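step: validate -> pass
step: tokenize input -> pass
step: predict -> running
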Amino acid sequence: MKRKLGAMLLALCLMAGMTATAFAQGDPATEPAGAPPAPQETTVEFDSPDVFINIGAEQKLNVKVTPEVAPEEIQWKSSDEKIVTVDQEGKIHGVAGGEAFVSAEADGVKAEILVIVQVPVRFTADTFADLDQDEILATLKKVLGPMETEGMSIESKMMPNGQSMMLSHEIINKAWSVQLSVEANMLNADGSEAYSFRLEALENQTLSAPVDLAVDIHKASEDTKLARLFRGGKGLVVDVKGKTFPEGAFLYFGHDKYFGEETLTLYKVTGDKAVAVEEVNTYPENDIGLSLSSGGVYVLSDLTEEEILANAQAPETIFTAEDLKNNKQAVLDSLANTTEPVVCIMFTAADKAAVMPADVIEAAQANGKQLVAALQNEDGSIYMWLFNAYGQTTQQKAMDVKLYASFTDVSADAEMQALLGREAKAVRIDLAHEGALPQGTVVAFPALSVFADGETVYLYELKDGKLVGAGADGAPAKSMIEQGAAVYETTHCSSYIMTDVAQISGAAGETAGPSAASPQTGDAQASMMLWIAVAVLALVGAGTAALAKRR
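step: predict -> pass
step: emit ->
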């Protein structure tokens, strides 16, 4: 009853407020309830002041009428039907080169748009080899001045096997001299557009050599070398055969089968180096447009430069636990002789007593190589050890390192929640090794199913029933989940808690004084090594499949 009474009072208050507002806005005597609103003035607007169209082409004009009317109530008219015609649905047709106004009228209100009908300069052939470039040049020489045109268009089918398609620089220079851009449309065998080059006419620009318009577009995964650089992400290779391109050169191609709507980076790739050229936004309804300054190999990817560099430094070849057991010398030889900066050894869930021998660690230290041990748990999760993370050449005495570790989801553990001070995500990590670890040891802890990529996680050491920050100055070591793992540098093994809790207080934790040997994320150089570890993670899936075949 009290609830009903309260609701009624609230309703009455709202009604009173609405009534007061109505009286404040006007006199009911002069503005009777239910009076029709004042008629809205009609407006007619085009979405742009002008539009360009080629001879023979058709295009529907967009016009906005307010208040909205039925399409048949709009009257369309052309000022010169010898230049452009328009039907009663607003579709224009280019008849001849020139300019004319098209009007749309509704309720006595009219708007106009300027239609510029362009004269295309177009040359077509079944194949690029069939194009008569002398004829093209002769035609262009007949053009005495600027033309009302969008540019010169060359259209042909692609040459087989990515053969060069050299376009005469005399043709390009002549087109530019009369302010014509040059567009070359390369078609597939079925007549669909494969890609097109557009060479914009810039003032005082000339070429001294022909331009090679050939391009090969394919996925990075189809190229052994580039697949390695761009693993763990998307990669589309655009191999432009020509070595020099004029300023203002653009390449356009469809991408529906490659990308959706997303932001990518265009890289110029030379050897193992990828240099960012520009940021590219892709939209399903539009072609990709790339600005090029030279020929060469370009790759569109969602990876960062740091990730690509890490991939470049990650190992191409992977040893197995079986190799380490039966042919350790091959591993030692690789550490001494390979040009690769990283050597990786993979262990499976069956390798319970995994150990990294001291002489293998010392070989990595002596030769400035990173040594990675990647271990797969029975649940499929991956954890990793990276020795000599900075690739320093040292003579540090090492010892055998036990690689075994256990990982447990303790998010629902009451004792753990009490230590963390609240309900939290938490993974307990127990490293089996006893004693100091070699300087520059990095460990990648799996996120299990507790954490997702992109989440920030904090590492605490579990000591005497308390949680101690495992980073600098006793603060928790901070990392981010990437490729299903968080990566930390450490000098000793212990029991750790990885959690989403950034700070704890009271008896549950200690913050004074760093641990004598604390995991931490390190400086910029360490960060690079962490990315290398993450890159190796991307190899493990393929490596595991190879392992299965070899065993």
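step: describe -> The two ends are 77 Å apart (CA to CA).
step: cleanup -> pass
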